[in-house]
Design a protein that fits this description.
- The complex is a heterodimer.
- By secondary structure, chain A is α/β, with parallel strands linked by helices.
- Chain A is about 25% helix and about 25% strand.
- Chain A has 2 domains: about 200 residues, P-loop containing nucleotide triphosphate hydrolases (Rossmann fold), CATH 3.40.50; about 90 residues, Hypothetical Protein Yjia, Chain: A,domain 2.
- In chain A, a hairpin with an 8-residue loop joins strand 4 and strand 5.
- In chain A, helix 5 crosses helix 6.
- Chain A starts with a strand and ends with a helix.
- By secondary structure, chain B is mainly beta.
- Chain B is about 0% helix and about 55% strand.
- Chain B has no helices and 31 strands.
- In chain B, the strands form 7 sheets. Chain B has a 6-stranded antiparallel β-sheet, with no helix packed on it. A 5-stranded mixed β-sheet of chain B has the order 1-28-27-26-25, with no helix packed on it. In chain B, strands 2-31-30-29 form a 4-stranded antiparallel β-sheet, with no helix packed on it.
- Chain B is globular.
- Classes of the chains: A alpha/beta, B mainly beta.
């Protein structure tokens, strides 16, 4: 069977610059042909690519999973696109500014035909440097898009002061410290920053360390050793940090990162993880983990969206690699103390 | 398992692109393809006609003596056995998602939520479904069209003042089909199940247990059986009794370790042509599940049979696959 077609999802609140990014991707001299799924025709001018109109139809699945929604129109469109397989190299889905990325992502795990034909590469969120802080307060959609992202383009950085930029970055990191963050003007980024990310590929989940440290050049010496934490939340409210990088705590959306310096018992861990995402699935947006199972030479890696989890034994732990078990949840009003207690109880 | 083979009676045809549908126009086999072309196989040889330029044929069906094609270029075209083409619809690029045709030349098509029906005189009527439409079917009697959509199906009467009749069932409905006697309406669903209604009283029938979506439904000529894809065998539901398949176990034939992708009941005998995801095709007799091999590709590959169609007299079978292989079986 031919390789699965990679799919990039572009999200971002109204006016952040999604269409600018899309046009940039399409107009670069990459020699690739894209099938582009958009909600509104018109603003994209392309001769060589396929453009398909979508209608963002959200379907609930009758499978007892309450947060398990898919995009019905995407299932139909991808089925149709497969009839002209070989005529395009990748799919880009542009969502509306108010869209929740979860049903889009879940479509690639829930629908067997879509999963067989295509693979989700990454969720790329474009954020407006000037307005994002405000939107995070008044627009739940904007917060969802930031929390869900694998890659964030903090765009229009030319319109803000360095102080405002610091502020908005801190707000993004309070919600999602794991996404790759790029500061851009006119969405100017190298294509490999947004395409071929393999963000949902279990084999590529190599590291799940937070990215507090990739800040301005002059902040390089900032120390903030998250690796030292043991079973702790990886971000805190730090006021008056000496280098001026503020750390916010978002009241609604947080990430919880936990680690055990050693093995976990799969007989305890797997039932707990499954039960946890089944019960708390609606509030969990993204889940990732790299775990050392007792008596198992391979790393167990997993990732998930709401209640949908997929995991597998990956490569061997390297001889010089400490066998640490790490899990990360990004979600809404996560019960951190409870998660920590239950995770730590899985230690082997 | 298939001890006897009809493979020598198969004439292979290189279609060269995804086969979206096959049909007979009179005695001429035609294949509608994912590269926008139609392949016409008349006695003089194969002719390739570029119908939808730079586009794909998503759906195609026969209506009367013409092949109707719907493309991702927003056009609906009609082509006869001589290869002459008439454009029936030209929208601004909205995909033609579903299509149904009738022997009298009536056709219905949908694009998103919009459903249109064109009668043999060329009069076009429109209907807006509650959500995107995935399947259309003409009722065997009367000018009625079944429309499958999210949370049910609707019976639309294009020429009547009567309001559309709604058959509700939660979930996304894909393909839709009437039993040949017009008593039952059956849809395939996103959730690997079929749903049926007895049209007279809207009695619900659930037919579940499939490991995959059912995308191919075919009724026996007498209307007593419904053959379906979506499992590692052809699942056949009994519809003879007034309760349809309720409280009855379905039959199965052609069991293999590969999923069935297309099924087609022989029009005159209780024999089913079964196409699989690896490109195999078997003929199975319903009574004893005895099987005859029609096609076994030389190389093992994922190449689902995507089109399977009998000539009305049952003398020939057309098939096509996702990877662009096709052929004609002539029955001995």
């Amino acid at each position: 069977m031919a390789d699965k077609i990679p799919v990039t999802v572009l999200t971002g609140y109204l006016g952040a610059g999604k269409t600018t990014l899309l046009n940039r991707i399409l107009s670069e001299p990459h020699g690739k042909k894209f099938a582009v799924i958009v909600n509104e025709f018109g603003e994209i001018g392309i001769d060589n690519d396929l453009v398909v109109g979508a209608d963002e139809e959200i379907f609930e699945m009758n499978n007892g999973c309450i947060c398990c929604t898919v995009r019905g129109d995407l299932i139909r469109i991808i089925e149709g696109l497969m009839k002209r397989k070989g005529k395009f190299d990748a799919i880009i889905i542009e969502t509306t500014g108010l869209a929740d990325p979860a049903p889009v992502a879940q479509t690639f795990f829930v629908d067997a035909d879509v999963e067989e034909a295509a693979r989700l590469d990454a969720v790329v969120t474009v954020a407006d440097a000037k307005w994002l802080s405000q939107r995070l307060k008044d627009a739940p959609e904007a917060k969802n898009q930031v929390a869900f992202a694998d890659v964030i383009l903090l765009n229009k950085t030319d319109l803000v002061s360095s102080e405002e930029l610091r502020e908005v970055k801190a707000r993004i990191r309070a919600i999602n410290p794991y996404a790759k963050l790029h500061e851009t003007v006119n969405c100017s980024v190298p294509l490999d920053a947004v395409l071929s990310r393999n963000a949902f590929d279990l084999d590529r989940i190599l590291e799940i360390e937070p990215e507090f440290l990739e800040v301005e050049e002059d902040d390089h010496d900032q120390h903030h050793d998250h690796h030292a934490h043991h079973g702790h939340h990886d971000h805190h409210d730090h006021d008056g940090h000496k280098h001026g990088l503020k750390h916010y705590h978002d009241e609604e959306m947080q990430s919880v990162a936990l680690s055990i310096d050693g093995d976990v018992d799969p007989e305890k861990f797997l039932p707990w993880l499954n039960r946890y995402v089944q019960t708390e699935g609606p509030s969990i947006l993204r889940t990732k983990g790299i775990v050392a199972f007792k008596n198992e030479p391979k790393r167990f890696v997993f990732q998930g969206v709401h209640m949908i989890l997929e995991g597998d034994l990956q490569r061997d732990w390297k001889p010089d690699e400490p066998r640490r078990s790490r899990v990360v949840f990004i979600g809404r009003k996560l019960k951190e103390d409870e998660i920590r207690k239950e995770f730590l109880a899985c230690a082997a | 398992m298939a001890e006897t083979s009809l493979a020598a009676n198969v004439k292979p045809i290189a279609a060269g692109a995804h086969v979206s549908a096959a049909a007979f126009l009179g005695s001429v086999p035609v294949f509608a393809l994912g590269d926008g072309a139609v392949l016409l196989v008349d006695p003089q040889g194969e002719r390739r006609i570029a119908l939808h330029k730079d586009a794909a044929i998503l759906v195609a069906t026969r209506a009367g003596k013409r092949l109707i094609t719907g493309g991702d270029d927003g056009r609906v075209l009609a082509m006869d056995a001589e290869g002459s083409v008439e454009e029936l619809v030209h929208t601004d690029g909205a995909w033609i998602d579903a299509l149904a045709g009738r022997d009298d030349g009536s056709i219905a098509w949908s694009s998103g939520r919009q459903v249109s029906a064109r009668d043999p005189q060329g009069t076009i009527k429109h209907f807006s479904a509650p959500s995107s439409v995935r399947g259309l079917a003409y009722a065997p009697k009367g000018y009625r069209i079944a429309v499958a959509h999210y949370n049910g199906a609707t019976l639309w009467f294009p020429n009547a003042a009567a309001p559309p009749e709604v058959f509700a069932w939660k979930g996304a409905h894909l393909d839709v089909s009437f039993s040949p006697d017009g008593r039952f309406l059956v849809t395939s669903m996103q959730e690997n199940a079929l749903h049926g209604w007895r049209i007279a009283d809207k009695q619900d029938m659930r037919m579940s247990g499939y490991p995959a979506k059912t995308r191919s439904l075919s009724w026996s000529g007498d209307g007593h059986w419904l053959a379906t894809s979506g499992a590692e065998a052809c699942i056949v539901w009994p519809f003879k009794d007034k309760d349809g398949p309720m409280k009855k176990a379905p039959g199965e034939c052609g069991a293999r370790r590969v999923k069935v992708s297309r099924v087609a009941f022989h029009p005159k005998a209780l024999v089913i042509a079964i196409g699989y995801e690896d490109g195999w095709i078997l003929l199975c007799r319903l009574a004893d599940a005895a099987a005859l091999l029609v096609r076994k590709p030389a190389n093992e590959a994922h190449d689902p049979v995507s089109a399977l169609l009998w000539q009305d007299d049952g003398r020939r079978l057309l098939f096509g696959t996702s990877e662009g292989n096709a052929g004609v079986l002539v029955m001995p």
